[in-house]
Amino acid sequence: MAGLLCGTKRKKQVSDLHEEGRNAINAPMLPTGTDIHPEDTLMEENAERIMLDPTSRENLKFKDLLKVLIDWINSELEEDRIIVKDLEEDCYDGQVLQKLFEELSGRKLNVAEVTQSEIGQKQKLQTVLEAVNELLRPHGWTIEWSVDSIHSKNLVAIVYLLVALAMHFQAPIRLPEHVSVQVVVIKKREGILQTALVTKELTSTTEMMMGRFERDAFDTLLDHAPDKLNVVKTSLITFVNKHLNKLNLEVTELESQFADGVYLILLMGLLEDYFVPLYNFFLTPESFEQKVHNVAFAFELMQDGGLKKPKARPEDVVNLNLKSTLRVLYNLFTNYKNSD
């Protein structure tokens, strides 16, 4: 009889669990297609869980944002031979986030390199997120992530974190504007699961996002002292021509003549005193992609020469963005102004 009662109790628990799951799945406010498993809905009273709405996962702008972030991480961690393919699967254990934060901040975190256990992974995440939050909070960031949300593979929390890091460290990427997603918020109140659909804004306009950054000398120059801009441009033109004249080349317009990357590559060869093989770049680029390839290759040469990775994007230089071109050339000027 005792065994029968225990068996009946277990069956009732399972039945209650599945009933709770069905209540959540069939809730009036729950979007169609949301995949909630009954075991996922066995929540404590007043607990809350957030899930990405499946329709948002297929949003093209959201997919574009994910791709930009993945490509950025892979670029930053190339020397560590780390390749990220899926943000949820590759970021939840803290390993990638640790390496990314260390690369961006230049700060080494005191954590175990490899952690297989859930406890170890959460401890690593705790250390990483404490360092991140300590860095971002003074700049007004709202913390939209936690150890539990990241470790449970909450994609929205992971993206919030990566966008914040990319913006804070002025990553040389262009984040898609106005990316919003809908999330399903599941709450348990008085034993009943309640659901609601909430919109989360992941990115705003480029101007507003860039507004979080400290404005540099070129922003001030262009906004408040345009009369002095010509003085700066003249100094940079004098500097580049001092070297390009050795190849019988001359620059008169900074924006346009560096936009295809050819002069940047040749200039780096002259500054570092080596010949750049012609098969490494397009000498007469025709397409936008070929020009971007050239500028990106010039950036690689700069890094090989010991310079920091330019904060400008190759695409911005190709698109004749004056501030981006000035930043790149001024970086060369400050490092090689005494070179013959």
Automatic annotation (TrEMBL):
Pfam family, one: CH
SMART domains xref list: CH
InterPro entries reported for this sequence: CH_dom, CH_dom_sf, Parvin
Gene for this chain: parvb
Major location category of this protein: cytoplasm
GO molecular function (one): actin binding
Residue ranges constituting the Calponin-homology (CH) domain according to the UniProt record: 63-170, 230-337
UniProt keyword terms in alphabetical order: Actin-binding, Cell adhesion, Cytoplasm, Cytoskeleton, Repeat
Annotated GO CC locations: actin cytoskeleton; focal adhesion; lamellipodium; Z disc
The family this protein is said to belong to: Belongs to the parvin family.
Record's subcellular location: Cytoplasm, Cytoskeleton; Cytoplasm, Myofibril, Sarcomere, Z line
Listed name of the protein: Parvin, beta
Stored PANTHER family: BETA-PARVIN, PARVIN
GO annotation (BP), single: establishment or maintenance of cell polarity regulating cell shape
Protein origin, superkingdom: Eukaryota
